Amino acid sequence: MGRVVDRRRVLKGAVAGVLTMWASRRIRAQEAAGGVRRLTDNLAVVDGGGSNVLAFSAGDGLVLVDSGAPKSGDRVLGTLKNLAGASKVQTLFNTHYHLDQTGNNETFSAAGAKIIAHECTRQWMSTDYWVPGEERYEKARPKAARPTETFLTAGSLKAGSEQIDYGYLPLAHTSGDIYLFFKNSNVLAVGDVASPLRDPALDYFTGAWIGGRVDAMDVLLKLSNEQTRIVPAYGPVMTRAELKAERDLMEEVRARLFKQVREGEGPKDMLEEGVLNGLARTWKDPYRFLYDAAKGLWAHHDKLDPNVV
Ligand SMILES: [Zn+2]
Questions:
Q1: pTM for this one?
Q2: pLDDT tens-digit profile of 114-130?
Q3: Is 66 left (phi over 0), alpha (psi -120 to 50) or beta?
Q4: For residue 173, how far is its CA from the centre of ligand 1 (angstroms)?
Q5: Three-state secondary structure call for residue 181
């Protein structure tokens, strides 16, 4: 079964290279149905088991942003083979340490890929840690899953015709979030720092908080222009206007929460008083968000207001 599917994929990949524009558009429609969203001839968003994997073909190999959720490895590999034939993944970036973004790291490192991430991402993946919201420990990831190269502030990588600039987004969602800017293609991968589909999440136990989230979105807005396509960790590719709308909404939430925390309110009071009411989005689990946001605000209480005691 696997062999038949593989041969079909290889064939489809080989044929796509010599098709006319008209026909390749038809292929494109099929691929969209198969969990692939093409952004350019060399860049595509691949379904990584519910999360987004951004794949760039540099000619002599692939660059990936995030590796997908656990158990999606075969699917991701099959899709990449379909897109880029026998090209190997040479570099894998992780936007942060969460399992849905790093779930197939082992598969790619075993095949020789270099894994680049922020140093804090490597640290969270290298140790057992307590997940307060679920009251359990998460085990350290095996060595083969961990980043092989880390950075603290920023870096740049030349891959084929593309220049990929990357940089740190402090405390926006975890302690190790990064963006990747594919400059020539004008595509910006932002991990979970933008969240058009799921509730925005804050891993307060890593230091992440709502102030960091708004600041990070301002960094992303500065990097982008009206034509930039923005790829979040989950959900649809966004325009800059959509990112700006999410940033403005989070800034409104930040201002409301600062006020509430200054008044000594906890997340339950905030929820009951309707602190998230009247906004352009609703939360699936507003209490969970407010709980994590409040924890983060208490940890950063020195930044709320000079008069806070
Ligand atoms: Zn995440």
A1: 0.88
A2: 999 999 999 999 999 99
A3: left
A4: 7
A5: strand
DSSP 68-124: -STT-HHHHHHHHHHHHTTPPEEEEE-SSS-HHHHTTHHHHHHTT-EEEEEHHHHHH
Judge contact between 121 and 96, C-beta under 8 A.
yes
Q: Give the amino acid at 201.
A: A
Distance 225 CA to ligand 1 centre (A): 25
Output the CA 117–ligand 1 centroid distance in Å. Answer: 14
In the numeric block, which tokens belong to residue 94? 């992780």
| CA 210–ligand 1 middle distance (angstroms) | 14
Going by C-beta distance under 8 Å and a sequence separation of 6 or more, which residues neighbour residue 252? 279
Residues 14-35: tens digit of each pLDDT: 444 433 343 454 444 445 557 8
User: How many angstroms separate the alpha carbon of residue 101 from the centre of ligand 1?
Assistant: 7
Cα of 188 vs centre of ligand 1, distance in Å, is 17
